[in-house]
Amino acid sequence: MLPWITILRPLNLLQATLAVVLTTAFLGEMEQVHNLVLLVLSVITINAGGNIINDIYDLKIDRINRPDRPLPSGAMSVAQARIYLIFLFAAGILLSWFISVEAFIIAGPISIPTLIAYSACFKRQPLIGNLIVSFMLGLAFVYVGAAFGNIQATLVMAALAFGFTLIREIVKDLEDMEGDSRVEARTLPLVWGEAKTLNLVLLLMAAFVILDLLPYALGVYNQVYLWMVLLGINLPLLVFAFILWKQPDKKNYFRVQLFLKLDIFVGLAALYFGQTI
Fold first, then answer.
1. Would you give the end-to-end CA distance of the chain in angstroms?
2. Domains, the chain, ranges and CATH?
3. pLDDT of 198-228, one tens digit each?
4. What gap in Å lies between CA 250 and CA 272, rounded to an integer?
5. How far is CA 214 from CA 59, 140, 200, in A?
6. CB-based contact 92:82 (threshold 8 Å)
7. pTM as predicted
8. Per-residue pLDDT tens for 180-190?
């Protein structure tokens, strides 16, 4: 039973669930329990299916980078994984149908084809794969907004999530250079070189610590948002930028991408507690 759970990447699904709940709370819609349950279940099933299809297409590289995963270890066959992901995708689309037409469109015609195209064609392509992952995470917040008929309120969240994730994805490519090079992947560090890619990461970090202050400067969020962003996001981001500049190695790439993966919740909290109303 364990491989059937492990291949879903439970930590990622927990992160997605928390993001849905926090976004729902941000929108002030926690009393709509029916929609919230459908949202959580649809996000879990669609993301789980995406994680499986990602593992299928990453089988060769995971034999190098992550040999303990269910597919490269032989704990699950590719045929079993395909049946599993079809079931999960179908369940996700069905659940979204009961939320709203807008949610169904985002889940079906947009999200699932994008997830498949990413794993099949774009994941190991320079920059475009990173942009797709960032787009999908931002879209998750829009999806919650669509469920409650309030997409506009989630646009700042989506934009911040996009920027944060883009940085993380490029750092993750730096971390995975060794395995990617063995399967002739065309990720940004392998096409541009490590030094140029690192410079791009540092530039994006510098841009982010300026752009994430705009919602406060424009009066959209209050001083609680400002201080949470300054202390919980920007200060650590600048520290990690300095670390990467001084010592760019696999261990530090891992630390930075893990920080970026978890710190998005600080951003969500800043948005929630920093509302002007």
1. 47
2. 2-273 (1.10.357.140)
3. 999 999 999 999 999 998 998 888 999 999 9
4. 34
5. 42, 22, 21
6. no
7. 0.84
8. 777 677 888 98
